[in-house]
Amino acid sequence: MELYTPVLVLAALAALFAVGSVAMSTMVGPRRYNRAKMDSYECGIEPTPQALSGRFPVKYYITAMLFIVFDIEIIFLYPWAMQLDSMAWFGLVEMILFIATVFVAYAYVWRRGGLDWD
């Protein structure tokens, strides 16, 4: 159990910081509400009746999926980098196949225009 003590202390500190930040912002923050603050936020775009009906451009979803793909890639790259010596060639070949798969997803999104913001 003593191996997990630092992890538990860090988790408790993180939770305390999160709860404390929310509590302090409600106590100290301004309470001036107006129409602009209560309106929905659409990345700086003025809300339109079409957006209020629940339909968003596909680019929002493509950006979210692209973020998830690269986020998962980073999650798998870190442990691989830590254990590279023990996995030797097998680990290298597996990671090359994994990165190739991610690159195919990236090329697909790029080809479909998911990275264009015009």
Q: What does the model show?
A:
The chain has 118 residues and is mainly α. It contains five helices and no strands. It has helices at 5-28, 35-38, 49-52, 58-82, 84-111. It is flat and about 60 Å long. The model has no long low-confidence stretch (mean pLDDT 82).
List the helices and strands and how they pair.
Layout: H1 5-28, H2 35-38, H3 49-52, H4 58-82, H5 84-111
Helix pairs in contact: 4-5
Give the strand tally.
Answer: 0
Strand content: under 5%
Number of helices: 5
Instruction: Describe the global form.
Output: flat
Parts with pLDDT < 50 across at least 5 consecutive residues: none
Helical amount among residues, as a percent range?
over 70%
Largest sheet: none
Indicate the mean pLDDT.
82
Q: Structural class per helix/strand content?
A: mainly alpha
Order of helices and strands: HHHHH
**What's the N-to-C terminus distance?**
55 Å
Rg, rounded, reads: 22 Å
Descriptive tags:
118 residues, flat
Précis, in short:
By secondary structure, the protein is mostly helical.
